[in-house]
Amino acid sequence: MRVQALARRDPGVVVVGGSAEALPIRSAAVRAVWVSQVLHHVTDLSAAAAGLRRVLVPGGRVLVRGMYRDLAGQWPLVSFFPGILKVEVERFPPWSRIQDHLEGAGLRLTAWDRVEQTLAGGMAELDARTCHRADSGLALLPDEQFHEGLARMRALAEAEGVPTPVSETLDFVVFASEA
After folding, report:
1. Considering the entire predicted model, what is its pTM?
2. Residue 113, C-beta contacts closer than 8 angstroms, at least 6 positions apart
3. Is the predicted pLDDT of residue 164 greater than 90, yes or no?
4. What is the largest CA-CA distance in the chain?
5. In this structure, are residues 135 and 78 in contact, taking their beta carbons and an 8 Å threshold?
6. What distance lies between CA 70 and its chain's CA centroid?
7. Which fold has domain 2-177?
8. DSSP 94
9. Which residues have CB under 8 Å from 87's CB, separation 6+?
10. What is the pLDDT of residues 110-132, one digit of tens each?
């Protein structure tokens, strides 16, 4: 994602490399931090939460986007790759743990909503994207399970007449630093 952001060269946007546990940003430097589909990759939630709080200006916001409730019901890939649910449940920290760390770092929960996003314009498009196995959960599946799921997806893609958009539901949560 950093490579893509650098390629866009948006004016006023600075792109840096680093980790959630040790953000390479000076203290009180940003008004908002966008944390999208990443918290399950963080090894030290306490350090990440403290770092998020540190880089925010007073009244700044942390915008968290991801799947935190009802993973099986939110994620369409589960119906094709049921083994991914076990993989992801083991990797995704429970929301209560994430919230405890963020609040423990001095961030206050201010909003929570669910948003729907379109993953693909139809099954053929979803198949074309999924076959690359770029999703970290798919990469952890045994090859046999991945190929069986892909075959199920391809069968639906081939049978689909008029493409029907495929969507998923994500949680969108906002935390604020003290003003």
Report:
1. 0.82
2. 171, 172, 173
3. yes
4. 55
5. no
6. 14
7. Rossmann fold (3.40.50)
8. P
9. 137, 140, 141
10. 999 999 999 999 999 999 999 99
